[in-house]
Specification:
Elements (H helix, E strand, L loop, with lengths): L1 E8 L1 H5 L3 H10 L3 E8 L3 H7 L9 H8 L4 E9 L1 H9 L12 H5 L8 E3 L3 H11 L10
Antiparallel strand pairs: 1-3, 1-4, 2-3
Bound molecules: adenosine-3',5'-cyclic-monophosphate.
The site of adenosine-3',5'-cyclic-monophosphate has 8 residues, from loops.
Length: about 140
């Protein structure tokens, strides 16, 4: 099935001028960018986006990191896009990420891990809707 998934290029990657290199990974994998924008997240926006992690020991530092500079947010579309994008990213901790994945190649640490991706169809729907209105998605098939 053709799915949509939600992606963030995080502040550590934007600061190191890796937007293009990361977008290239998406396109090389056959994932199509159907919406994209650069944003400076507010604290409220970042806290709301990561609400499921509220109360965890890393929550405040995660939010501070995510507002430390601009991010790129995008919607990726393709066959089994949710699982395929997660494989392309590699494990959350770059030290555990497989060779050739985005996180193995670009991430600095568990916190500064360069990219986010939806972990399920329910998350993808919520996360896309959190940042994009329906009319901001461009059909490309
Ligand atoms: P992400 O996929 O954006 O989802 C939540 C983020 O929290 C995760 O990537 C990591 O950047 C961060 N994170 C998860 N676990 C930890 C941890 N144990 N310590 C610090 N940051 C974490």
């Amino acid at each position: 099935t053709i799915e949509k998934t939600f992606s963030i290029v995080k502040p550590d990657a934007v600061k190191r001028n890796l937007i293009g290199a990361i977008y290239q990974r998406f396109e090389n994998a056959g994932l199509k960018i159907v919406a994209a924008k650069m944003l400076q997240l507010t604290k409220i926006q970042a806290q709301g986006f990561y609400a499921e992690h509220e109360g965890k020991p890393f929550f405040d530092e995660l939010v501070d990191f995510m507002i430390s500079g601009p991010v790129m947010v995008q919607v990726l579309e393709g066959e089994d896009a949710i699982v395929r994008y997660r494989e392309l990213m590699g494990k959350t901790n770059p030290q555990e990420a497989a060779c050739g994945t985005i996180r193995a190649d670009f991430a600095i640490s568990l916190r500064y891990n360069s990219v986010h991706g939806s972990d399920s169809p329910v998350s993808a729907e919520r996360e896309i809707g959190y940042f994009f209105a329906a009319d901001e998605l461009c059909p490309r098939s």
